[in-house]
Design goal:
It is found in: Nucleus. GO terms for molecular function: DNA-binding transcription factor activity, RNA polymerase II-specific; sequence-specific DNA binding; zinc ion binding. This is Zn(2)-C6 fungal-type domain-containing protein. Pfam families: Fungal_trans, Zn_clus. The structure is a single chain. The chain is mainly alpha-helical. It contains 23 helices and 2 strands. The chain has a two-stranded antiparallel sheet. The longest helix has 21 residues. The radius of gyration is 25 Å and the shape is globular.
């Protein structure tokens, strides 16, 4: 067995720096001693003759032996050497050799960096009858909430159509061919891990995003979680190597977590998807489907970063304001928000603000039935109004009122980011409590409090502000 400290010397500097950030062992913590976090044992444990140097992993919530990290680091070094051989023009290695099948998935599972949620979905209550869904679909929804039998064609077609028109149009994570295959009745009868995972994630995301069908969140979320749990049964098969399939699967999970944050940490999932994009190098691809996939991931990453005021990882790609693709229009507006956040008020004088009025006309002329595209346009107008050197309270309040009106009159996707924007815009309009924008903002937060309980605190905060 390697002596304490010898193992670290075998690693390059970047890995040694990473290992230096490991938590202190439990023994050093208990004795209030400085732990040098060496492998396979710290010096204090080695001197005391303790065989197992154990630390607490905060992500997994369990205790792990420090010696277990040694084979992982050896594996990482081996993969690096194989990658360097490929970069130097050596013969391409077989994917099964580089990324063999394993009992534990590469990215997910009980021992992975992003563990599956063990929380069981709550039992659903009865559905409302005042929806435009047919009674047959209601019966299918009720029957599928418990045992998840094989879906009928009607239910599958409805959820697939909703995903294709409302979700895929804005976040084209899937290839068009894959989307068509997933909607095919014949394809559904052919067993396939990737197809089963994709179909269940499509249904999970569709159920979680249905906000305009007269259905209550407490009814749809448990059903969405059931589809999600079915998809997670296939997670090992679709994330067993660094590939486009793994990236698409991770992006679908990240998108779902924006609607149901309890089923996965969306910031970690989006960061993982961003890391896969860089490893696969698709940010430089000329393939149309892969470019749309990259745009989907970078748009989700930027939306979370801009909303929660966090940094981003993915490199920027050129926006194409002349494109009429929804994802291109979305990225163009988000790139403008990123630019405005980086610029100071003095710099704003030298940067001409692009005319968003033209984009407003384009969106209406194309009759894009994607409410969130119009909502992001209003968010961009608000961000630019706040960052403008010539900003006045009237300009900012007008932009905030327009954003509230868009959310109030159109069925936008109920992601966990929506309450933030509603609260921000309503706070700007709170200096006029009698205005329609302020009242509509409170009504919006009240409308979404069943899905997002934190909206109740936001309402109280606004009421305290206005006295």
């Amino acid at each position: 067995m390697a002596t304490t400290g010898e193992v670290q010397q075998e690693y390059p500097e970047d890995l040694r720096e990473m290992l230096a950030n490991l938590p202190a062992c439990l023994r050093c913590r208990a004795k209030h001693r400085k732990c040098d976090v060496l492998l396979p044992r710290c010096r204090n444990c080695a001197k005391a003759g303790v065989e197992d140097c154990v630390y607490h992993d905060h992500i997994l919530g369990s205790e792990l032996k420090r010696s277990a990290i040694v084979p992982l680091m050896q594996r990482l070094q081996k993969l690096r050497r194989e990658r360097n051989k490929i970069a130097q023009g050596a013969p391409t290695i077989d994917s099964k050799t580089a990324f063999p099948s394993r009992a534990i998935p590469l990215f997910f599972g009980e021992s992975a960096c992003i563990p599956r949620s063990s929380a069981a979905p709550q039992q659903p209550v009865g559905l409302d009858s005042g929806s435009d869904l047919s009674s047959l679909l209601y019966a299918e929804l009720l029957s599928n909430q418990q045992d998840m039998p094989r879906m009928s064609s009607e239910l599958h077609n409805h959820l697939s159509h909703h995903f294709a028109t409302h979700i895929h149009a804005l976040y084209p994570i899937l290839d068009v061919r894959d989307l068509e295959v997933s909607r095919s009745e014949q394809a559904r009868s052919i067993p396939s891990s990737s197809r089963d995972f994709t179909q269940n994630m499509i249904c999970a995301i569709s159920c979680a995003s249905l906000s305009d069908q007269g259905l209550r969140a407490q009814d749809l979320i448990p059903l969405a979680c059931n589809f999600y749990e079915k998809a997670m049964e296939r997670i090992q098969d679709v994330t067993d190597n660094v590939s486009v399939l793994t990236l698409r699967s991770t992006a679908l999970l990240a998108l779902f977590s924006l609607f149901v944050p309890k089923q996965g940490n969306f910031t970690q999932l989006i960061s993982l998807a961003a890391r896969l994009c860089l490893d696969l190098g698709i940010q430089k691809t000329e393939d149309v489907a892969l470019r749309k996939l990259y745009l989907s991931v970078i748009c989700m990453e930027r939306q979370v970063a801009l909303t929660l005021d966090r940094p981003w990882l993915l490199p920027t790609i050129d926006a194409n304001p002349g494109s009429r693709e929804p994802v291109d229009l979305l990225w163009w507006m988000l790139s403008l928000q990123c630019t405005q956040r980086r610029k100071s008020s003095e710099e704003a004088q030298t940067y001409p603000n692009p005319s968003l009025d033209e984009l407003d006309i384009v969106i209406h002329q194309l009759q894009l039935h994607i409410p969130d595209l119009l909502a992001v346009l209003r968010q961009t107008q608000l961000a630019m109004a706040e960052a403008s050197f010539a900003n006045t309270s009237g300009t900012t309040q007008t932009a905030a009122a327009s954003l509230i009106n868009t959310y109030y009159t159109t069925p936008c996707l109920p992601t966990c980011l929506l309450p933030h924007w509603v609260f921000k815009a309503t706070s700007i309009c709170s200096n006029e409590p009698s205005s329609a924008a302020y009242r509509h903002g409170l009504l919006l937060l009240d409308r979404h409090r069943a899905r997002w309980p934190g909206c109740v605190s936001l309402i109280h905060k606004l009421e305290e502000t206005t006295g």
